[in-house]
Amino acid sequence: MAGAERPAAQGLPAAARGQILDKYLSSPRVGSGGNVLGLLINARATADIGVDLGTSSTLVHVRGRGVVVNEPSVVAIRRDSGSICAIGLNAKRMLGRTTEQVLPVRPVRGGVIANVDLAEAMLRTFLKQAARGPFPLPALRPRVVVGVPTGITELERRAVRSSAIAAGARKVYLVPEPLAAAIGAGLPVDSPRGSMVVDIGAGSTEVAVISMGGIVCETSIRVAGDDLDAAIVAHVRKHHNLLIGEPTAEAAKIQLASVDPDAEPTTISISGRDLVSGLPRRIELDSAEVREAIQEPVRQIIAAVVRALEATPPELAADIAEYGLVMTGGGSAIRGLDRLIERYSHVPVRVDPDPLTCVVRGTAAILENMDRYRSMLHA
């Protein structure tokens, strides 16, 4: 073979063959001669997968193809047998609409894996779905980088690894979600300069100060998007005697949630069950009511940011005062939240242009630069 030396992998264990392929792949001359082996190895490279295992949604990025899976982290099971009848969007559509025999479950709750078996089955399904590409080469299995919550236990780490391996992964790496979000947002995480990220997901808010490739200090609270939904449900129940479901509350949050009292008022119609008559009823809900409803969870998120800043070493605090912090995650889309955090933290705040995909973009960047980021991963 002209150019790079052909890897002599025959007769070696699978792990050793994978290491040789990795080394061979790093050669800039691989595939330059139009040879079949070079093309196959480059095809294996494009199959490397990054995963954001979130409370609300799971996103899967395939190298060379972008984000190919964006599904709700929901699994529907049968109560009598425990068997799975739907995963992802089909399962989410069942929320609040199923019979007693079918139960929609969120395997990831509050930023941690609440049901290890269902989380494993869900992740396996999404990875197999992502693997359906133009190069179905089972012998050249991909590497997988998974963004996981900082509070994950060793049992949960093993569940994530085993599900990825069962789906066909050759090697599985885990990265803390705040670190992945910072990489996805383009922060210089491996430099001495201090960087700060506020990742507001569905189940948890994670605030981290990062320097030299590691998390220097962090604050994690189980208050995030789901708690905003619950606050809206409670407000509508208390002030309108109307019971609404989780999907309705989430839709109201997306359309109306704002912490800016000067924002232009908006109104939407929502429906639910009247708690007095028991009959369906429709009401008009405005943004001022939603702002009042979400005050307490928003206050807790701001307090978490302030606590992280108070624990930051002085030199890194100076960097953050100069360069500011970055907000990621779906919760950062709440109108006016960035300005409110800036007011209480006294540091500049910016929201990433695509906050929902920061973590999965970070895992993709790690796969593109494994040598640079390898020390930040848990193998």
Fold and architecture overview:
- With 379 residues, the protein is α+β, with helices and mostly antiparallel strands.
- The protein folds into four domains: 1-46, no CATH class; 49-179 and 360-376, Nucleotidyltransferase, domain 5; 186-223 and 296-359, 2-Layer Sandwich (Nucleotidyltransferase, domain 5), CATH 3.30.420; 225-295, Alpha-Beta Complex (Actin, Chain A, domain 4).
- Helix content is 39%, strand content 24%.
- Strands 3-2-1-9-10 form a five-stranded mixed beta sheet, with helices on both faces. A five-stranded mixed beta sheet has the order 13-12-11-17-18, sandwiched between helices.
- α10 crosses α12.
- The two termini are 33 Å apart.
What is the topological layout?
Blueprint: H1 14-25, H2 36-46, E1 49-53, E2 57-62, E3 66-72, E4 75-78, E5 84-87, H3 89-92, E6 102-105, E7 108-109, E8 112-113, H4 116-131, E9 143-148, H5 154-166, E10 171-176, H6 177-184, E11 195-200, E12 205-211, E13 214-221, H7 225-240, E14 242-243, H8 246-256, E15 267-274, E16 280-286, H9 287-293, H10 295-310, H11 314-323, E17 325-328, H12 337-345, E18 349-351, H13 358-368, H14 370-373
Helix pairs in contact: 4-5, 6-13, 7-8, 8-9, 10-12
